[in-house]
Fold this protein.
Amino acid sequence: MNILVEADVIHNLKWSPVVELILELAAAARHELSIQSIDELRTSEWFKSEARDLADLLNQVEKSQTLRKSSVAVVVIRSGVGDSGFIGPGKETVISPAKALEFLYTPFQLILENEEFDGAFLLWMSKALKRSDFFQAYRAGKIEFRHAGGKGSIDRSIRLLNTRVWGRKDRRYWREMSRWAGVVIDSDSKCPGHEPNVALVDRISDRVAFSHILKKRAIESYLPKELMLKHLPAPSRTRVEALFELTTQQRKHYHMKSGLRVDGGVVSKSQYIVSQKPLAGEKTLFSSITDSGWSLLSPGFGSSLAELYVNESTRPDGSGYLDIIDPDDVVEMNYLFDKIMEAC
């Protein structure tokens, strides 16, 4: 977050301990301090009375901020603001100095359907693409994964971040933290034109800093071929080869865990085509799969596939895995990491 401490707060000695802790947070790269606030601090009586210590701290802040991109999310610390804070006309979060530390010590909340698997996917990708900015922000506690427990609970998770349990209608005890949260969810798209999660994203758009629907059906759809061949059991490797004989669109929408089942059962291609359960677009998309490919891919890879993102033995090493990741996935994930880092 980019913090603007208004002049009346800086010049009120009552708030000097709070301002000093904000400086410590900025020096530790948890937040940025606006140039306007730094300039105002240098003119304050407080700065003049403790010039050496504060000058050193300000120098640390400025040095830290030259080494990274600045956040586009703005936090204004202003006297006379209620405890809950509010969102200003420029989408800045406006909070009181009394509540500033409660807000600023709260990590940016990345709301995920499943904290462990989706979080591991993001960490795996950040290591593979050498996005140390995201990885270190997570390790330093600047970013925190928030477990929603499925996409149906994402709306609730956002609400509780602000209202807490038993939130009051008069907003007492609320925290205006809508700019403190972002959402990443699977597309769950079964075929081109099927966009089941767009309505959810539209519904929450004014209550989060950003939301991102993955371009592929699920996190398992991003697993590189080489990783799967190396770490899946030998009987699954022919299935992996069949998977990567599919077209780009087919792989994008294929259900990696359940395959091409109907009502949970493995069926032949002809049974799939005549069934009323798959969408017409699914039938069109997958009808060109060969009979041999169908028999291999119809069962899917099972529910434990995302463990490849979790297990320590399958994590990228320091050299990165850039050369084995689909180039379109590289573009998407770098865009997502940029959005996250700009928001926090």
